Amino acid sequence: MTVSSAPGKVYLFGEHAVVYGEPAVPCAIEVRARVGVERRDDSKLRVHADDLSLDGFTVEYGGDADGRPDIDVSESLLVAATQYVDSAIEQVRDVTGEEDVGFDVTIESDIPLGAGLGSSAAVVVAAIDAGTRALGTTLEPAELAERAYRTEYDVQDGQASRADTFCSATGGAVRVEGDDCRSLDAPDLPIVIGFDGGAGETGELVAGVRGLREEYEFAADTVETVGDVVRNGEQALAAGDVEELGRLMNFNHGLLSALGVSSRSLDTMVWAARDAGAYGAKLTGAGGGGCIVALDPTDETETALSFTPGCEDAFRAELAEEGVRRIE
Ligand code: MEV
């Protein structure tokens, strides 16, 4: 078995606007997805997953004449997870030239699915890394990030930025603007996550922002304003000014709310964090449900969130310095 892991991420700033060429600053966190692969002697793909915050499941691919997945799980999130793996293994086949290779794939993830913590990017990065290594090829992080981006781009019908996949492949805090991806120096950030137990539909949420942007000039201006907040955020990050980071995160959340991607539970958690004294709080990722990220060096926010109706889980997350990790 060849096993790789990759971290999830939070967006300090810039989700959604990054899709339209504005900069974004995601930050990898020490919550990981692990993917193990074993080469098969046929060309099938068999995916087994436990701990995806849902019941374990097993899916076999490649059963019919067209090689289409033979999926017998109904939960759309699980089906989506297997689509990411299917597409990731296509990249493995493409990189290595082994077009007919099949794998048994095992996924274990501590990252809730579709909740704004980059679960799909982490699974894709780990799957491509393990798959290529199993065939004797070790990719550099930049190439791994590019292949993972192409996977997300395909599965999400062209609605993906490079932010999640680059951050998961390289670790640390990163800045992404269009095709330009680079690592940033970051202080030790006091990150607290609140999770409402739900998930957002990334494709629908991205399409919603696109619609608003096309309909209203002020919505397009709002997206550009997110870019301004991000540029200020970069300066605060470079200066290690955590209080200013929090203020700017509050601003970013307000703009995301205006663009229609927050939800009652996300807003409730954001306000609970602010009331508890967090420097700032915002939703992270596509929104619609899922997670918020707050900055608070004390235990107050975590405690307050754990008593907040609608918050299913609250936890502290360390910044993940390391991106993809080669386990065996
Ligand atoms: C999703 O994690 C972040 C979005 O900006 C989409 C993307 O960047 O691909 C909403």
Descriptors:
2 domains; binds (R)-mevalonate; Alpha-Beta Plaits; alpha+beta; 328 residues; 9 helices; globular; 6-stranded mixed β-sheet; Ribosomal Protein S5, domain 2; 23% strand; 4-stranded antiparallel β-sheet; 12 strands
Please write out the topology.
Blueprint: E1 2-13, E2 25-39, E3 45-50, E4 57-61, H1 76-96, E5 103-109, H2 119-134, H3 141-155, H4 163-170, E6 173-177, E7 180-184, E8 191-195, H5 202-215, H6 217-239, H7 242-258, H8 264-275, E9 280-283, E10 291-295, H9 300-306, E11 313-317, E12 325-326
Parallel strand pairs: 3-5
Antiparallel strand pairs: 1-2, 1-12, 2-5, 3-4, 6-7, 8-10, 8-11, 9-10
Helix pairs in contact: 1-2, 1-3, 2-3, 2-4, 3-4, 5-6, 6-7, 8-9
This protein binds (R)-mevalonate.
Considering DSSP H and I runs of 4 or more, what fraction of the residues is helical? 40-55%
Q: What structural category do the secondary elements indicate?
A: alpha+beta
Q: What is the typical, i.e. mean, pLDDT? A: 91
User: Could you tell me the number of beta strands?
Assistant: 12
- Which percent band covers the strand fraction? 15-25%
